[in-house]
Amino acid sequence: MSKKMTQQFLCSKMMLPEHCSGLRKYAEDKKWAENHRRPLLDEQFREELQQILELAMAEQQPLKFTVLDSGGYRAYSGIPLRSDPATGLIYLRSGSSRLQAVKASEVVGIEPF
Length: 113
Description:
Low-confidence stretches: none
Radius of gyration: 23 Å
Strand order of the largest sheet: 4-3-2-1-5
Order of helices and strands: HHHEEEEE
Structural class: alpha+beta
CATH topology of the domain at 59-112: SH3 type barrels
Largest sheet: 5 strands, antiparallel
Helix content: 25-40%
CATH class of the domain at 59-112: Mainly Beta
């Protein structure tokens, strides 16, 4: 039985280097896509995020936003000043008193800072 298992992959030794590198790249791309897959946010979780955001805007409390964009996960922190539903942006005042804009559609988590 063990002889069958070891000889099963004997043909893979004859693969061209281009095919081996292509298979490695495919596996890396698949792993990257799995790690950067957008989580499903249910309606209740979105409402909780909205309540946290509104409370922080009213009380001028700093928040930490976790954002998933094409570059991967990123963290932004600051005091939320306002949210613009027309453009879908949330404006934050960071420590350097400059404004940062965060896309609301890319936010996957909000927590107190």
